[in-house]
């Protein structure tokens, strides 16, 4: 790579990072629905036509922010899981859950972008799926390890739900029993429901010691997917 080309690429990366940082600031002040490329360009001292060379539309900028948020969340969860290596399945599960909560509390506007109200007129493309899957894949991996060890409790499954459960395992966990797939999806949705309730104020005057409450709830979710401590 030539020196000139390397300098151009570094400059482009710096400008891209500045655009996304300003967009995140505006997310906090205005919300995703009011994100504007023109406003971002104005705050950065750029003309709109120059910014469009980096992000041709608001939706492309939103997609980049969404992928960054999912990746940041995924990295935090993966780091917590790695730190709990060697612990029992319940502890590994709760470590991931606690990392999700900690990240959300530290990045409320980015959490709202990926798990809050949909942005009017925006539909997330397939490009967001790998980043969005990182936490779910960690949780699936913990359950898979328990199933192989063995260490996964038997779970009930209504007969009318079995076809849907079999579709689930075929789609994202082909090496797990159908009962585990249903329990995983329920626990995954409850995890983000717990975090969202705390972050968006629904626990006000209901739960005071939220850290202890969350830790207890996360451990219950672990047992609901069939995990058991060592």
UniProtKB/TrEMBL annotation:
Domain HTH tetR-type: 13-73
SUPFAM superfamilies, sorted: Homeodomain-like, Tetracyclin repressor-like, C-terminal domain
Domain of life, per lineage: Bacteria
Keywords, alphabetical: DNA-binding, Transcription, Transcription regulation
InterPro entries referenced in this protein's UniProt entry, alphabetically: Homeodomain-like_sf, HTH-type_TetR-like_transc_reg, HTH_TetR, MT1864/Rv1816-like_C, Tet_transcr_reg_TetR-rel_C_sf
DNA-binding region: 36-55
Stored Pfam families: TetR_C_33, TetR_N
Protein name (database record): TetR family transcriptional regulator
Organism name: Streptomyces incarnatus
């Amino acid at each position: 790579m030539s020196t000139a080309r390397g300098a151009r690429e570094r400059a482009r990366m710096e400008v891209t990072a500045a655009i996304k940082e300003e967009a995140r600031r505006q997310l906090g002040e205005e919300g995703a629905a009011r994100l504007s490329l023109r406003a971002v360009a104005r705050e950065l001292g750029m003309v709109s036509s120059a910014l469009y060379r980096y992000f041709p539309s608001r939706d492309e900028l939103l997609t980049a922010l969404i992928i960054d948020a999912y990746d940041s969340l995924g990295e935090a969860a993966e780091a917590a899981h790695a730190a709990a290596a060697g612990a029992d399945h319940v502890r590994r599960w709760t470590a991931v859950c606690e990392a999700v909560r900690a990240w959300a509390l530290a990045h409320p506007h980015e959490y709202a972008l990926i798990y809050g109200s949909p942005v009017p007129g925006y539909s997330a493309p397939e490009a967001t799926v790998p980043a969005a899957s990182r936490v779910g894949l960690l949780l699936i991996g913990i359950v898979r390890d328990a199933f192989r060890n063995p260490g996964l409790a038997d779970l009930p499954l209504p007969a009318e739900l079995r076809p849907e459960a079999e579709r689930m395992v075929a789609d994202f966990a082909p090496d797990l029993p159908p009962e585990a797939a249903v329990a995983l999806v329920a626990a995954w949705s409850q995890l983000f429901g717990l975090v969202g309730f705390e972050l968006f104020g629904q626990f006000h005057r209901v739960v005071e010691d939220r850290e202890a409450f969350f830790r207890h709830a996360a451990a219950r979710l672990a047992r609901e997917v069939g995990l058991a401590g060592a």
